[in-house]
Specification:
single chain, alpha+beta, 34% helix
Amino acid sequence: MSRADRLVDLLAERELDCLLVTDLVNVRYLTGFTGTNGACVVTRDERLFLTDSRYVEQAKQQVAEFSQLEASRELLGDLAARLSGRAGFDDAQLSVKAHAALADKLPDGVELVPAAGLVERLRAVKDEDELRAIGAATKIADAAYERLRADGLAGRTEREVARSISRFLEDAGADEVSFPPIVAAGAHGALPHASPRDVEIPRGVLVVLDLGARLDGYCSDCTRTFATGPLEDRQVEAYEAVRATQAGALDEVRAGKACKEVDASAREAVKSRLGVGFDHGLGHGVGLDVHEGPRLAPSAEGSLEAGNVVTVEPGVYLPGEFGIRIEDLVVVTDDGCDVLTGFPKELVTVDG
């Protein structure tokens, strides 16, 4: 069954006659189109793809299962004419201005119905082609960590290291980075999303490194924490506590497990070991976006499904001292999970 056919089944759940898809990531997922101006309409009987004259030839090469129509630069007006009955739209993505323009051009009798999240539900469960792409992107990220271990960190600036990561990922075959790399040494590592600085990395500190590659549209995401020389006992103990928590969290991941329960068990484990926890979620889905559903977080709804690809990334962050995060990318299975990330989680020390 095609992705569009599976989407039609979801339309029936919402009692929709059609769905307007304007988010470009969702458009790519359904049609294969990678341009910057396109949309599609899915009904029980039709699959329509619209783009402007700049992308007609590209669409002929990429879009196979949808009827293709050339639209003007005023794409919303052309789309409005294609809608009928109860027409779902992505209210989480469509702006108020765009909604007003769309509503103004609707044929009589058409009702716009908020329907965010339908395509995302499909995207959350990966097929074999998607898993291959994510696995390949993960191998490139693993190779980046091997290069960091060989090249060392001490004496280089955080920004220099971040730039070298980006260059390596692309040279190793990635289309691009899946997000700007995080390189955060010492006390700077206590910021979970720290930005690299023009500050030299000293010896004898922990360095949080978070990176990912994008390949054929699909992302990888991995965090490791390195040492740049001998550490204080407290830092080593904290690292081992996070590593043990991460290993325990992997054991909790399986189809049918409530997302917030997986998060809660890791949150409680790290707090029981160290007396402090982490404020961010334990993990998130990864696919065409580096952050997508499902989420592993206190407020997360629903349960994991086989085929979900999620991160498992507990951490600890002590302001003014250090941060530690260990993150793997995993595929959820019926009886557990398959870890895609291959780089070791034992504390790696690089002093050059």
